[in-house]
Design a protein that fits this description.
Keywords: Cobalamin biosynthesis, Methyltransferase, Transferase. GO terms for molecular function: cobalt-factor II C20-methyltransferase activity; precorrin-2 C20-methyltransferase activity. The protein starts with a strand and ends with a helix. It folds into two domains: about 120 residues, Tetrapyrrole methylase, N-terminal domain (Cobalt-precorrin-4 Transmethylase, domain 1, 3-Layer(aba) Sandwich); about 90 residues, Tetrapyrrole methylase, C-terminal domain (Methyltransferase, Cobalt-precorrin-4 Transmethylase, Domain 2). It contains eight helices and ten strands. It is elongated. With about 260 residues, the protein is α/β, with parallel strands linked by helices. Bound molecules: S-adenosylmethionine.
């Protein structure tokens, strides 16, 4: 019938969407490409419904093609006779292995229907975790920064695979960026770290991203003026005049 590509979100099982959970709870078989995705999926899938796939740790493209053909050959009959799911951390269509599977199924098993259930991507989860607001109209670029790389140019970047934080940091700062890092955000496994100090992240950890913003960007949303004391005074008067309720003021302040 169908293969569902299910996005699990960044790693906490309670950030799997309701739709994703429904698919996981009802699929005949659920394939997991890695240890971490498996540990999230098993919050909703009994061990006996977990499917086995073998993925080599290689950059050799021939070997990768062989592995994806083998994976598609295993999954296709299960998806034709019933419902199968393949999970990925984050969203299945953002820097993910799911694209390889979809293309391989399309090429060699065109009878299999493929549907995607979106997940909370690290591309969006970082904003809340790192306290960053990407305001309307701002441009944001996604890059990789593995092994000390430091792409430059765009005003704002989310950098994935930041495996050598000190080296990447030095280059970005030299190029005029302010940088903040997030490691294992919303993940049950391992320690979550949010910091702008590269010394806290000298150990390599694949689940590390960075947000880099050029120093001195000028664009400011209209309500940014409330950050000055004068403007806050005017705003406080306006709230009291409207409802005279101090708790309403406090709860509005809590909504950041
Ligand atoms: C191959 S990409 C997968 C992205 C995923 N499909 C998504 O939508 O979030 C892996 C990279 O995403 C970032 N990443 C994914 N989940 C993360 C998390 N929970 N905390 C920090 N970084 C994360 C890391 O930079 C990691 O190297």
């Amino acid at each position: 019938m169908t293969l569902y590509g299910v996005g699990l979100g960044p790693g906490d099982a309670d950030l799997v969407t309701v739709r994703g959970r429904e698919v996981l709870e009802t699929a005949d078989v659920v394939y997991t490409p890695g240890r971490l995705s498996r540990s999230v999926a098993t919050a909703y899938v009994d061990e006996e419904r977990i499917g086995d796939l073998d993925f080599p740790m290689t950059r050799d493209e021939d070997e990768l093609r062989r592995a994806w053909k083998a994976a598609a050959a295993e999954i296709a009959p299960r998806a034709r006779d019933g419902t199968a799911a393949f999970v990925t951390l984050g969203d299945p269509n953002v820097y993910s292995t799911f694209g390889h599977l979809r293309r391989t199924l399309d090429a060699f098993h065109p009878g299999v229907t493929v549907e995607t259930v979106p997940g909370v991507s690290a591309v969006s989860a970082f904003t809340t975790a790192l306290g960053v607001e990407v305001a309307a109209g701002a441009s944001l670029t996604l890059h990789e920064a593995a092994r000390g790389a430091a792409p430059t140019g765009p005003d704002r970047m989310v950098l994935f695979k930041v495996t050598d934080v000190p080296a990447t940091h030095e280059r970005l700062v030299d190029a005029g960026y302010e940088v903040v890092y997030g490691r294992r955000l919303y993940m049950e496994q391992g320690e979550t770290v949010v910091t702008d100090d590269p010394e806290e992240l000298t150990e390599r950890d694949y689940y590390t991203l960075a947000y880099a913003e050029k120093r001195g960007l000028e664009a400011e949303p209209a309500t940014a003026t409330f950050e000055t004391a004068d403007e806050r005074g005017e705003a406080g008067t306006a709230v009291e005049a409207t409802d005279g309720d101090a708790s309403a003021d406090a709860s509005a302040g809590g909504q950041r």
